[in-house]
Structures are given as C-alpha cells and as structure tokens.
Amino acid sequence: MASSLTSTPIKRLHGLLKPGLSAKLTWVGLAITFMFILVAIFAPLLQGSGIIQDPTASLINPIHEPPSGAHWFGTSQEGYDVFSRTLYGSQAALKVVLLATILSLLIGVPLGLVSGYLGGGLDRILLFLMDTLYTLPGLLLSITLAFVVGRGLLNAALALCVAYVPQYYRVVRNQTVSVKSELFVEAAQAMGASTWKIVSRYLFLNVIPSVPVLFTLNAADAVLVLGGLGFLGLGLPPTTPEWGQDLQQALGALPTGIWWTALFPGLALTLLVVGLSLLGEGLNEWLNPKGETL
Hints:
Elements: H1 2-17, H2 21-42, H3 82-118, H4 120-135, H5 138-149, H6 153-179, H7 183-190, H8 195-207, H9 211-231, H10 243-251, H11 260-287
Helix pairs in contact: 2-3, 2-11, 3-4, 3-6, 3-9, 3-11, 4-6, 5-6, 6-8, 6-9, 7-8, 9-10, 9-11, 10-11
C-alpha cells in the first residue's frame, strides 16, 4: 500500500515530463507565468538604467511618439513611456491577483471543510449564502463592490476575493462530504479523535489537491476582471501602471492611428491570462489524471 501511494505522484510527474502536447503546453504556461513574475520583481531594480523609466513620470515631450530606439513601445498621450508602464503593469496585476486569490482561499477552504464535515444548520446556511454569491456574475459582483469600497490595491483585491470564495467553498465542501464517509474517517471518529484533528489531518489532506488548480484558474480570471475594473476606472489609483486603465486611456487615440498605446498593454494582459490558464489546465490533468474537472 505504501509503495503504491508513493509511486502515484512519481507516475504523475513522469506523465508531466512526457513530450506530449499537454505537457508542452503546461511548461509553456509555467514559463510565461514565471517570466511575468521576473518582470514584476526586476522592473523596479532596473528603473533609471536608461531602459526602464519612471512609469508615473510624464515626459511632456515627446507625446504619442511611435515605438523607437528611445522608447521601445512608444509614448502615450499623457507622455508616459509605454514600455515602462507595461512592465510595471505586471507588478500591479500580480500583487492584486495574488492577494485576492490567497484571501479567497483562506476564507473558502476552511468554510468548505467545516460546512461539509459538520453538516446540519450551519451547512445549509453557508450553502445558501455561497450559492447566492455563486449565481451572480463575477465581473458584475466585483464591479459593484469596487464601486462601493473605492480604488486601491487592497480594495481591488477584496472586490475580486468575494467573487472567488464561493468557488473554493463549493469544491472543498463537496469533496469533504464525499471523503467524510470513508473508513479511515469513521475509524478516527471511533477512536475519539477531535473534530479539529479529523478536519485538519484527515479531511484537509484529501481535499487540498484540487485547490492549486482552482487557484491558478482563478488567478487567470482575476487578471481579466482587474483589467475590466481598471478599464471602467474602478481599479487602482489613476497614475498607477495598470493594463486595464492604460487600455481605457488609449481608447480615444485609436481612431487617429495611434495603436501602440493599446496594443502592448493588451498583449501583456492576454499573454498572462493565457499562461495562467495553460498552467491551470496542466495542473488539473496532473492532479486529476482520471479526467475529473473542477
């Protein structure tokens, strides 16, 4: 038994290393995501090097300059260097998305475990509340909350977080209901194990494998939602480099043939979403080899 349990992760990892299309796409997604992480970390360190400029400093002149050797992605109508703002936009996106997904995980997973294991009135109340939130479109819910709490990094993360808590709750709760009827859980109950010990030691370890997949897919969705909030003027403060906000500011310049102010932030947003989505699908295939989907 022990050898078979030990060999399962090894077999899954071996499948991930096989040169198949799915494995290749997973590694592509990981590479793209890692690239954005590196950009977010090193962009501030390279500021002032002549390549990356202050993304919040207006150059005054030139304005609306196309891509060139001096400004690789051109300049915007506000006089910002588009290349610098595109790089710094990855930092804003990763900060907000990481904070939002971690908060929703820390709230949704414990609620799902407790609700699924204890059942009864608490389970019915939580299930009703979470199902109500789940039926609301995530973008609409985030827009409403962002409008109420206002702009800011933490406020944007909270607006995104509320939309993802029900997803963690539902997945973890359903798996907990299934696992709690297993013989090893009944044996622990018969031996007098406390509720905390059963939930934390036996149930948690059996339901947690699905969480990384959900975390990655939610992160991809959160990048899009954050871009939508920024486009509507409900995300981060106005001068903060943020792709959605930059796209909104570039919208008025497109009819005049000034394409670069919208192209590069849009490509960066799309590329990060694609990378996280490929990584999430790859993790799902690795952790759920039987083809189960969340």
